[in-house]
Design goal:
Length: about 210
């Protein structure tokens, strides 16, 4: 489990294909940036841009993870060198500064707009239609591993059809921009999304009751 509070911005240095041809995954060598690794052991979990990955190698300042082809197909930002948001798994002794996050990406969103408003930034994301029922005003959403609060939700309809997507907006304060990779977002960019854990179970209970 994670909190969605990014602990450091690291960087993917190399992406090495694993054996198995086009169906194989990759090994990522990651510079941990300011993330302390002294208490990280092989087999521990680290969230990379919101995706929970297992440490298979480590040094004092870097670590490696293996990413399956399935994970590559369902995420963005794990297939090429570049900056990534990092967070170690939550312990029971830590403050829950964000919300409970599993590190399982539920879908890819598309940035509709990203604009400076006063001292902050307004991020507007189009989420897949099937995730719309989990998004609510003042609810929580994880974008590229960052726990954020939803300020607006709008079901966007295509002409003469059901909702084509769910558009939500978020206010990003300067601190969040400074300490995460969200500063690099732009219209059209893809982002990893994870819905709120509690919303997931509420939806399941309601749908089971109706059945």
């Amino acid at each position: 489990m994670f909190t969605g509070i990014v602990a450091a911005v690291g960087s993917i240095k190399t992406v090495k294909p694993l054996e198995g041809g086009s169906f194989a995954g990759v090994r990522l060598d990651i510079d941990a940036g300011g993330l302390p690794l002294a208490d990280v052991a092989l087999g521990d979990s680290i969230s990379i841009n919101g995706a929970c990955m297992t440490v298979v190698e480590k040094s004092d300042s870097a670590f490696a993870v293996d990413v399956s082809r399935e994970s590559l197909n369902r995420t963005v930002g794990l297939d090429q060198p570049g900056e990534v948001n990092l967070e170690k798994a939550l312990t029971l002794a830590e403050r829950l500064g964000g919300h409970l996050v599993s590190g399982h990406v539920d879908g890819l969103g598309t940035v509709h707009s990203f604009d400076k408003v006063g001292e902050s930034y307004k991020l507007v994301v189009d989420a897949p239609q099937e995730l719309g029922k989990f998004l609510a005003y003042k609810g929580s959403i994880v974008v590229n591993g960052v726990s954020l609060t939803v300020n607006e939700v709008l079901d966007v309809h295509a002409e003469g059809s059901a909702a084509a997507c769910c558009r939500f907006s978020i206010n990003l304060i300067p601190h969040t921009i400074a300490v995460t990779t969200l500063k690099h977002l732009h219209a059209g960019a893809k982002v990893n999304l994870e819905i709120d854990l509690i919303a997931r179970y509420v939806e399941r209970m309601l749908s089971a009751t109706k059945a």
